[in-house]
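Sample entry (372 residues):
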Amino acid sequence: LVLLFTVVFMLSACATAAPTAAPEEAVEDGPETLTMWTWKAFHIPGLEALAESYAEETGVQVEFEFFSPDDAYRTRVQTAAQSGELPDVLAYWANDWDIAASGILNNITDQVDEEWAGSFLPGTYENSSVWTQTRYDSCAANADCAHTNLEVGDVFAVPFTAGSFGIVYANAKMLEEAGVDPAVVPANTEEFLDVMQQVQEATGKGATIGGQFSDIIRNWVVNDLAMTNCGVQEYVDMLNAEEGATFTDECTQQAFGFVGQMAERNLWQPGFQTLTIDEADISFAQGEAAFLFGGSFTLGFLLQQGMAPEDIHVITLPALPTSQQNPIALSPFSLIGLSVTENSASPEAALDFIRYLTSPGAAAEFARITGD
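Predicted structure, serialized as tokens:
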């Protein structure tokens, strides 16, 4: 639960290209072509650039396909799993243990050595890629758990991207138009509400988010505010329904109250409740909103939509005035994992390509190209 609700700020975009690390060993007698799937269209240019470098080192070509939106991708993976048409390498949501338990991914436990496991951002591999004793015990105690076939220590994926929620994007031009310092960092939510109102009155533009999904505002805004306002342990006790811990506590109500104040002051962009995450991001990129609540992963998509970096002002979600932690501190968690599927005719080559993608040089180059 701490992993689920404690979030991270990790913007890994680099100002200059870093040299791409070569694989430890060239793949000998391997396939001419590997395939990889993703649902992130803006990742494709970075992946293709890395695949070109990889081909020069190994002679192995890699082809990519993406399926969007998210639901279409999940459906495509499920259909391909039934028909035996999965790619060699699959990008998928980290911490999704249903797909690991389904048997469509190769178990790579013995192939992730200590050096590779230690190369990821602290906490990301341990918390998203390993079926821990805690997870095992929790599953064993739940009659409905669908993961009983997993063993302690099992690994089916490694982290590819990491990041956090709790990030706010502002249109720098609109800030200037409203007479607000484009480098403003509000001290707390009260100052932030005043800034948003000043911009709304000057430009007619408010804030947006993927409001079509009922849990987005809670996960991307309220959780950070409540956890830092109540304290981590008290908030986790609430999530676990511990005796005496309840979401009616004042510290939690203050977090929900921030969202309510935005509505009372007419600071939400009209129609945001009908938007998906991508649609909200596009709305902001097209100048239809002055502020966007998102995550570190939002930046690359905004750049792909044509926004100039200098027009994007980025801040961490401001804390409540009563917060025990200010500014809010964010910690990394894995967002996307990479796996070798059971359908791969060349699992060793597929795993070698994953190792290459997650090497420091390749990761830096990917970040430079994609902004993720």
